[in-house]
Amino acid sequence: MTDRSSYMDALRDRVLIYDGAMGTSIQALGLGPEDFGGPALEGCNDHLVLSRPDVVEGIHRSFLDVGVDVIETDTFRANRLTLGEYGLQDRVVDLNRAAAALARRVADEYTTPDRPRFVAGSMGPSGYLPSTSDPTLGNTTYAELADVFAEQARGLIEGGVDVLLIETSQDMLEVKAAVAGIRRAFDETGITLPIQAQVTLDTSGRMLLGTDIEAAMVVLESLRVDVLGLNCSTGPEHMRQPVRWLCENSRLPISVIPNAGIPHNEAGRAVYPLTAQALADAHDEFVHQFGVGVVGGCCGTTPEHMRLVVERVGGAAPLHRDPPKVPRTASAMTAYDLAQIPAPTLLGERVNTQGSRAVKRLLLADDYEGVVEVGRGQVEGGAHLLDVCVALTERQDEADQMRTLVKLLAQSVETPLVIDSTEADVVRAALEQYPGRAVINSINLENGRQRVDAVVPLAVEHGAAVVALTIDEQGMARTAERKLAIARRIHDIVTAEYGLEPGDLIFDALTFTLATGEEEYRRSALETIDGIRRIKAELPGVFASLGVSNVSFGLQPHARAVLNSVFLHHCVEAGLDMAIVNPAHITPYAEIDQQQRDLADDLILARHEDALERFIDYFQEHEAQEEEAADPTADMTPDEAIHWKILHRKKEGVEDLVDRAVQSRVAELQSNSNSNSNSKQPDPTNEA
Ligand code: THG
User: Fold this and answer.
1) What gap in Å lies between CA 238 and CA 231, rounded to an integer?
2) 511 lines ligand 1 (CB under 6 A)
3) 429 lines ligand 1 (CB under 6 A)
4) 20 to 30 A from 96, CA-CA: which of 392, 432, 491, 652?
5) pTM (2 decimals)?
6) What is the pLDDT of residues 473-510, one digit of tens each?
7) Ligand 1 atom 27: the closest Cα is on which residue?
8) Beta strand extents in 218-317 (DSSP E only)
9) SS3 call for 294
């Protein structure tokens, strides 16, 4: 008997080789309806483990005979939804248990003391695409899919598999549900096994719904799978770049299980063009050049393919890989480093009913497309992440609105989402709809541990990062000392008790407005800056974020822009990684003149008793002038103006300027060619 924890141990020692194709091997046998258990079940490969177990056993043996380490159960489509196509939806546990037990028995027969053989419980897709809005394919939920995969996993675990294999995945939301289902099956059976998750990329290097390999990796790692990789689809040639990228960026073992090339149709049969030699060459490169740890064959691969693969990479020790750990978020399309360089990462604040009257009106009217437009505007303005808040005192359906909006945003914007709600059911609704890796905003200790205990399990299940506010039972922390103490308390609970990593945590040290002039708040911005510095120093690996505009609440808009910008500058110097802002409203620090910087510094750093008065006076006096300030590009040539606009990140009017620059180039060229042609014959086509 194989020790069930030994799959990961073996993987540390040597490259593991999976078997070849189950589906196309069955097809090649030309079975008839009676083999499948009658005409109604013809083509149901997964039912063969009951109707013709000898056939399935023969295929397992054909691969074990050529020396593979791992065989896959014949259960690729053995979930309730796909078995339902044959009326077998009530046989899920039976069938998976039988398939696993069969593979277990055969694998154990080949096991030797120094070389165990393993069984991978194959779990293919449900046939649905939960993150789409397709009326048929999108018509399921995360919760339903988690149930579906929990049931299948239970059968596989009870039958004795060594590893659960989620494969040929097309939709990251389905993968998330599969992992959640598998973990539930671990709880129910009391047996925890490794999880290996493999996505399928097309020739463009993206999954069916447009997800790139970076986003897939970020989501899979955040779900804490044990092995991640690629299978099926294109054959090894098109996998090279993504495989290399995974090996250079993921800290997990990487698996690659390609088809025998892209099939073509010959007389109604799919023919797989890749030779055994070519597959062995590819795996040789993947293992010895890139450091892939698990190889195998998908559709079209035969025992002969796997015999050559074993010959070439069998017994190889995995290359040592040690990519740096980089905390990232992901949308349904691509991934972003949580900490952008240069800092700060910009969290667009406008998709927020609490912070924008326009968004509030749109959501009261259920105009979700309108809200998506606001989000797009934030992204165009430079947001790296979108903060999303739909709370309305006028309505009771925050979770439903969040669910609808998140689904739409996930399909519409490339930027990952920050779910801004303190209600656990709203956070859950958002995460169950999101195919990427989100950030939860936020937890705190206002009511003791209540919110932490309600929300952090959701972060663990969904692999989300978490913003934590420095608020406890006594209220919002005002001093750096208290900000750090609360941050430390939250840090210790979520890392020690929930197993989050420091890099999953983003502390918001909060700041108060300086506009009241009250003595007790005079040093509050300084305390925030210092709080950020101390949190970053004392809790290594965590991030710091801040809703910057609070500092200027109540002041005039043009004065706010300056104060926000100077304050942001100090916070970033203290270690701030992220800022919740309206990206369109940030005044670049470089554009603020020295006098204004000094006035803002006096206020922020509490350097003068009358700093607030002087700050307000200055901006009252300079208001008119500011607003009439001449366009600095007015006297520039189009080329100079474009240069200035790029330098200052101003998009307004750039298209016009480019048109004018192009026109002047064309005019220049024409006048050159005219002057050249003057000495020659006149061009007849130029004669009007
Ligand atoms: N920390 C964390 N999360 C937060 C905050 C924070 N989420 C909410 C808020 N604070 C950040 N979001 C906003 C959104 C909008 C505005 C400020 C912060 C804003 N709104 C305009 C105003 O008030 O003048 C409204 C203009 C309009 O109606 O369009 O400035 O601190 N973790």
Assistant:
1) 11
2) no
3) no
4) 432
5) 0.90
6) 999 999 999 999 999 999 999 999 999 999 999 999 99
7) 356
8) 227-232, 254-258, 264-266, 269-271, 294-295
9) strand
